[in-house]
Specification:
The complex is a heterodimer of chains A (147) and B (117).
Chain A (H helix, E strand, L loop, with lengths): L1 E6 L5 H13 L5 H22 L7 E10 L2 E9 L23 H8 L2 E6 L5 E8 L15
Antiparallel strand pairs in A: 1-2, 2-3, 3-5, 4-5
Helix pairs in contact in A: 1-2, 2-3
Chain B lengths: L9 E7 L2 E10 L4 H12 L5 E12 L1 H16 L3 E5 L3 H9 L7 E3 L2 H6 L1
Parallel strand pairs in B: 2-3, 3-4, 4-5
Antiparallel strand pairs in B: 1-2
Helix pairs in contact in B: 1-2
The chains are: A alpha+beta (147), B alpha/beta (117).
Chain lengths: 147, 117
């Protein structure tokens, strides 16, 4: 299990990715699935920094990663302590609208099997993402994500 | 928890007859994309015929990086510069495919192809 309290600072992202890669590798995930998990966590963490803490680096982000058995997979929780937001507003943009930004949530949903946002007890947002070892993201062509 | 020196972004811009080639190495994420943005916009100030963004040395890119190259392409088009993405590693390419932005960009596999794309 990974259980971390981290500052809302983008400088922690490389270390989080490295630790997550090692943890999932040691638990038998394929390289392309590891890439998907790492990207989903990076995007979620980035969203907390950008939209939750609005670039402030002194916020707290709790990251918890654990194995699940039914199904055989992974559950990742990311919790912030930001001002509560309207959960319905957390959505990716229309992909036909070509512009910078708004892609993070779309990628999270593509990479993970289940994605749930909720209001955390005591304030902030709790994101729980789940993925089983049989799940692989697909591209718009319907092809499996790159290996 | 912080990154090691391996996480440092390297950016080299070379002016060639075919256009400007921006060679990038390292990971592109929220932390490094502002530097990339600055270098791409700087290269566009000279209105080259092509801006070849060579991602051969990039093993990781998140939506911050994707947004940065989308912004550069839109600005380039307004100035008459053609943007080509070259050398996408499979993991980077899949981010463009999943966000359907592979249809928006000219993507080449070799720098030779990029020079004539």
């Amino acid at each position: 299990m990974i259980d971390l309290e981290l500052p809302s600072d983008s400088s922690v992202l490389p270390g989080v990715r490295k630790q997550l890669r090692a943890w999932t590798h040691n638990r038998g995930w394929s390289e392309h699935q590891i890439g998907e998990i790492v990207l989903a966590v990076d995007e979620a963490f980035t969203n907390v920094i950008r939209h939750g803490y609005k670039g402030r680096t002194d916020g707290c982000v709790k990251l918890t990663v654990r194995e699940t058995t039914q199904p055989d997979g992974i559950e990742i929780s990311i919790r912030d302590f930001c001002q509560s937001v309207d959960l319905d507003r957390i959505c990716g943009r229309d992909l036909d609208d070509i512009r910078p930004g708004g892609l993070g949530v779309h990628l999270i949903h593509a990479m993970m099997e289940k994605v749930e946002y909720s209001h955390a007890e005591g304030g902030g947002v709790l994101l729980v993402m789940r993925k089983s070892k049989t799940h692989v993201a697909t591209t718009h062509n319907g092809e499996a994500n790159a290996k | 928890m912080s990154g090691s020196h391996h996480d440092k972004l390297t950016i080299e811009t070379v002016a060639e007859p075919a256009g400007h080639v921006v060679r990038i190495g390292g990971d592109i994420d929220l932390r490094t994309s502002p530097e990339l943005r600055g270098r791409l916009l700087q290269a566009l100030e000279e209105h080259p015929e092509r801006l070849i963004i060579d991602l051969t040395g990039v093993s990781y890119m998140d939506s911050s990086g994707v947004g940065t190259v989308v912004e550069a392409k839109r600005k380039a088009e307004r100035g008459g510069t053609r943007v080509i993405l070259n050398g996408l590693q499979p993991r980077v390419r899949s981010v463009f495919e999943i966000t359907q932005l592979d249809k928006f960009f000219t993507i080449t596999n070799t720098i030779e192809d990029a020079r004539t794309a």
